[in-house]
User: What shape does this take?
Amino acid sequence: MRHQTIYDPLRRRDVALTPEEQVRQWFIGVLSEEFKIPRHMMMSEVPMQFGDARKQYRADIVVYDRAASPLMIVECKRPDVAISQDVIDQALRYHSVMDVAYIVLTNGHSTYMFGRSGSGFIPLSSIPSWDTMLQTK
Assistant: This one.
């Protein structure tokens, strides 16, 4: 049986079309079209390690600044997964490795955006455009 696939423009290849992947690809489009983030400044499925170095973690989408430093982490979940404290904690663990200015959590139905404020994050009603993010980093 052949599985459905979808083209990931960031990985430049077809990937399995899972519910989470569908959300990821939708949000890559939102970032590119609505927030004017150049696709070449984003990566999907970015590997990282923290704590137990034997376990590999992957950030769904990472947006980079012009110096190739991580600027924003996007954590995508399947549409039937609620954006819970566990999801927030997962994104904060990724932040502890990448030190980003913005975190976005989405399941395709609900999207929550946060911007760094001092040592923490505050909710945002929208994320700024990429150009504005670069100016406020």
